[in-house]
């Protein structure tokens, strides 16, 4: 397999699809850099006891005893005035990425949905219930100005995953 094919395979493995939407875990390069930096600076910590924490590499909750890395991440990466940096967890070792589709384990609770424009401005926000999550995402993505919807924790406001139109 060529390096380019492997890069495409890794990128595609981190994106799931559901009814005209693409579900995005953290980019592989971000996850790899975090794993490599774990324990080397104050921004990347190895943690062992974080069962139930939402994993941004495979879009599920951490299981008891899984080694993890906790680091800070900005999903907007400098686009616009609404840039936020917050804590995220990933597996300490490669995990294969998400299964595809809407992450069931991360969608079982009410979620804050924030719709962003190409310039990083917030277009709209919605409090989505588990039973309306898919419909609410589709409604937000139907606006021509919206290029991405961030799915966030209601209790802590943490970024969980991103959704774009297909």
From TrEMBL:
Pfam families: DUF1203 (PF06718). The lineage of its organism: Bacteria, Bacillati, Actinomycetota, Actinomycetes, Pseudonocardiales. This is DUF1203 domain-containing protein. It comes from the Bacteria. InterPro entries: DUF1203.
